[in-house]
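Write out a record, fold above all:
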Amino acid sequence: MHSDTSRKRTHRKAAAPRQGNQGRAGVIGLGLMGSSIAACQLASGHPVIGIEADAARRSRARRRVLDLLRETVGGWMALR
């Protein structure tokens, strides 16, 4: 059994996106999950490269990502 004083809690700050190749994200497949991942990465400040073979899906993904980003920015602005 551990006493409360023996437990150490560490708190870490979120890392800022790195410059160069280390801060880039690639998403293969831009369906619902891929476009959501891309939007999260973009909202975090990372450049994203999305790959989708189907032209219609690419078009829908672009709109979906933009809508998600608008919702995210709108949500952040409402919290201020």
User: Anything to note?
Assistant: The first strand starts at residue 25 and ends at 28.
